[in-house]
Write a structure and sequence with these properties.
The chain is 48% helix and 14% strand. The chain has 361 residues and is an alpha+beta fold. The protein has 4 domains: 45 residues, no CATH class; 128 residues, no CATH class; 96 residues, no CATH class; 57 residues, no CATH class.
Length: 361
């Protein structure tokens, strides 16, 4: 076979210059230019095969520029926002939109490392991609630490030991234990912000209500070696939480006094008779099933345990709670308990015209 020789000619205003193309990859590039079909894509494919290091170097420069601009101080990146609202309103979708705008090529490269196909937002690999990008950006700049704070909060909430958090912080998975504690301490004012908003709404006639529930929390800290100076430390604290009512009570209708009512008022209406029949049927059937063995064997597993009512759907809902802190109060000391109750009443009990809004308190 004869070797194919390609001569390249370039025409200038001053004249013509020609040269023979010897490299095979250069010949392929000339053919791609001559055909005029997907020229750039063909050239990139040729160079990727002949000199992949050159392509990776060019790609690294693109990624470098994108990440550098994204990690600049004051760039407005989501990962740089570490305020209370920013962390609790963080979503992967918002982060994905930011990457697609500010670092689309970086996203493509990391996505290709994790999946061969396009990943949908609901897939598990989608979170892997987002987390990989966030960890890489945090490694470049410690200011990009929104995700690391969130992971630290999860570890601390799960009772992870401080030394284990420090180990994970060294490999960039979370912030240090000191940084996490400092961040949480700076949020003391946000601890009961939602409760105070509900209290204000309640005092103005709102329907959402809550209860204050508390119990003592005592703990003895025993030293490893007991001495006259290192004695057992007894802590007496009081734990308080706010529990929202799952069911919003209806305003009671005005009732008449017995003397103003006639005998007709005590006769049940047709709706009340229907409701009474359903309840008596359920009670009777449940009693028969529970007390007769033959009926129990047949119907025990199929007959409903509870009568369907207007609040049945609320029974399985999880109660929403707000922990408002541990208070320094010994329940065995009356004065400390009185002081705590006064403080809690002043701060959390809704008032209307300087009077308690609900008699429940």
């Amino acid at each position: 076979m004869y070797a194919v020789t390609i001569q390249l000619s370039v025409y200038y205003p001053s004249g013509e210059r020609s040269a023979f193309i010897l490299e095979e990859s250069h010949k392929q590039i000339c053919r791609a230019v001559y055909r005029r079909q997907n020229v750039e894509k063909c050239i990139l494919g040729i160079i990727s095969k002949s000199d992949p290091d050159l392509v990776s170097s060019a790609a690294s420069k693109i990624v470098f520029n994108e990440c550098q601009n994204m990690c600049k101080r004051g760039s407005g990146s989501i990962l740089q926002e570490k305020s209370y609202n920013s962390i609790f309103k963080f979503t992967w979708d918002d982060f994905n939109k930011e990457i697609q705008i500010k670092a689309p090529n970086t996203l493509k490269i990391i996505s290709s490392m994790i999946s061969d196909t396009v990943v949908q937002p609901k897939e598990k690999k989608y979170l892997h991609i987002m987390q990989s990008v966030a960890l890489a950006l945090h490694g470049r700049s410690e200011q990009m630490s929104c995700l690391q704070y969130q992971i630290g909060f999860i570890l601390l909430h799960g009772a992870c030991k401080q030394r284990d958090i420090e180990r994970l912080a060294k490999i960039g998975l979370c912030m240090s234990a000191k940084s996490i504690n400092n961040k949480l301490s700076s949020w003391d004012n946000f601890l009961d912000s939602e409760v105070l908003e509900i209290k204000k709404s309640w005092s103005e006639g709102g329907t959402i209500k809550y209860q204050l529930i508390g119990d003592n929390w005592d703990k003895n800290i025993i030293p490893t070696y007991r001495t006259s100076q290192d004695k057992t430390i007894s802590l007496h604290l009081f734990n308080m939480i706010v529990v929202l009512d799952r069911i919003i009570p209806e305003t009671a209708c005005p009732t008449d006094t017995v003397t103003d009512m006639s005998a007709v008022n005590f006769i049940p209406s047709l709706e009340e008779q229907t409701l009474l029949t359903e309840e008596l049927t359920f009670i009777t059937a449940s009693s028969i099933i529970q007390n007769l063995d033959q009926m129990n064997d047949v119907f025990e597993k199929i007959y409903p345990k509870h009568l369907k009512h207007r609040y049945s759907d609320h029974a399985g809902l999880k109660t929403k709670q707000y922990p408002i802190g541990l208070f320094d109060c010994n329940e065995n000391k009356t004065q400390e308990v009185i002081r705590l109750l006064k403080d809690l009443t002043q701060k959390y009990v809704p008032l209307k015209d300087d009077e308690i809004a609900e008699e429940v308190f």
